[in-house]
Amino acid sequence: MSGTGTDPGTDHRIAHIELDEATIIWRNADVEQERRVAIFDLIEDNIFKPTRAAEKGGNGPWYVKLSVLEGRLSLAISDTKDAEPVETLILGLARFRRPIREYFAICDSYYQAIRKATPSEIETIDMARRGVHDTAAELLLERLEGKVETDFSTARRLFTLICVLHIKG
């Protein structure tokens, strides 16, 4: 497991992630599939070391609940599934509004293209979709700096889940 720490007894990774279902207003089959894949891939391989919790002796694995509260992203981090959070990170979402909008727009184009475009058109749209996703993951890495040690793949999957929380009908 790539999230396992170098110290014996540490396992700095996300073992379980939950999305606040009250935050998710609407979703379709395409979005639901994205959510399932992102969660599966995230749990299979991730690096996640919340700085303050680790400094206080927390070893992981971590249980994370993502929600949007008053326009901010909340990451409630626990060391067991039903425990009170050992740390809650709150990130402003203002800097993510544009990447989220762009990601939704390009995903919508991608889903439509899958149904009726040529393979070359689908590939072009998919490359643009990956570019938007990668840029947003870099932004998330910047916002988590000093709060959570993680890697690009984990940030990318977390961004997908942040987008799911922002879907409006």
Q: TL;DR?
A:
By secondary structure, the protein is an alpha+beta fold.
Descriptive tags:
single chain, 169 residues, alpha+beta, four-stranded mixed beta sheet, two-stranded antiparallel sheet, 5 helices, 48% helix, 20% strand, disordered N terminus
Q: What does this protein look like?
A:
The chain has 169 residues and is α+β, with helices and mostly antiparallel strands. It has one domain. The protein is 48% helix and 20% strand. The chain contains 5 helices and 6 strands. The protein has a 4-stranded mixed β-sheet with strand order 1-3-4-5, covered by helices on one side. A two-stranded antiparallel ribbon has the order 2-6. Strand 4 and strand 5 form a beta hairpin. Helix 1 runs antiparallel to helix 5 and helix 4 crosses helix 5. The longest helix has 26 residues. It starts with 13 loop residues before the first strand and ends with a helix. The N terminus is likely disordered.
Beta content: 15-25%
Give the termini separation: 38 Å
The number of distinct structural domains comes to: 1
Shape, per Cα inertia axes: elongated
What order do the helices and strands follow? EHEHEEEHHEH
CA radius of gyration: 16 Å
Provide the residue-averaged pLDDT.
88
What's the total helix number?
5
